[in-house]
Amino acid sequence: MTPVPPPRWTDEEFAADADIARANFVETRMQEPLEQYLDRFEEFRLTVEELIEGTVDLTQLADQAVELLTRSPDMLTSIRYLASPPISEDDLKELADTRLSARQLTAEEGAGAQRVIETVMLGLDRNRFPWVSEDREPTDAERAAAVISTAALIATQKVQTARRNESKTEQEDQIAQYLVIQGFTQVATRAVSNLSDAPAPGEFCRESMFGSRKADLIVRLWDGRVMPIECKVSNSSTNSVKRLNNDAAVKATVWLSEFGKLGVVPTAALSGVFKVHNLASAQGQGLTIIWAHNLDALGQFLDATNPN
Q: What is the pTM of this model?
């Protein structure tokens, strides 16, 4: 029996679905509560204020390095954001040649903590903290502006990161719940090095290695083929190239090479903003496109793979 081919879309169909996905993104984005940002802003406003006042306008930052860096995650974040651009934790560990654990920062009389402060101060934002390089006391206005601008930077980044993570998790949950409704059973996560390692027909697992690349979900179709699914949420057409073409489509090519065209159906479940030519390009590389707003198309394909 010839396997049922997965859905394939014309440019016109891609355009119609892309418009719906974008409209859904805009509606969701505009309805997001401001409270999340305001809560994070107030949290870090207090921390940054404590940092500046407690170190006498940053002049005693090095003297208090160990105590400040080990006080709380929020204080460590605030110190990282003294630099411009802010220094990520991963970069800071490399640049300062230390881990950011309390044990490492306090070892050797705080040598690691001192290197962290030195690294941050080398990149200190002179626009937000002009008094440091000018070796003077800040005015009240400068101090207030530094606190507000730094807290705003941190809060904005925290909210954006949380929004990306929440959107992707929500989409994975949505797909998993839909699979259950379609009669599939969720099973334990596993590494799939060959098709015999995959879930049985009618089963799926989440966040698993599929060959050399990780898949958000791995579904075993009723006819025995395996459908690795990548969940992709994009907030711009530029971002969509990275998530769709440079990630999901590349994974599809790798999976087809590793497992064969007859054994796998690489799939991406999409929501957000995508351009038609990028969608068509990804589909041309063997990636099946499913929209989060139209999971019935996935359901129809799943049903079609069931010989019963």
A: 0.68
Structure tokens at 176: 């998993």
Question: What pLDDT, on the 0 to 100 scale, is given for residue 64?
Answer: 95
CA 10 to chain centre: 30
Between CA 230 and CA 272, with CA 264 as vertex, the angle to 5 degrees is 20
Q: What is the rounded end-to-end Cα distance, in angstroms, of the chain?
A: 13
Q: What is the mean pLDDT of residues 249-274?
A: 95
Sign of the Cα torsion 268, 235, 92, 246 reads positive
Helical H segments across 32-101, by residue range: 35-54, 65-69, 73-80, 89-95
Q: What is the DSSP letter of 200?
A: P
Cα distances (angstroms) measured from residue 94 to each of 3, 91, 99, 114, 117: 50, 5, 8, 14, 13
- Could you tell me the residue ranges of all domains in the chain? 11-31+182-304, 35-160
Domain 11-31+182-304 has CATH 1.10.3470: no
- The phi-psi region of residue 41 (left if phi > 0; otherwise alpha if psi is between -120 and 50; otherwise beta) is alpha
What number of residues does the chain have? 308
Residue 248: both structure tokens together: 């999901």
Give the DSSP letter of residue 72: -
Helix (H) or strand (E) holding 150: helix 140-181
* Four-residue CA torsion sign, 213, 216, 218, 219: negative
Range in 43-47, 62-66, 156-160, 270-274 with the lowest mean pLDDT: 156-160
Cα separations (Å) of 259 from 1, 2, 57, 124, 192?
20, 18, 60, 50, 11
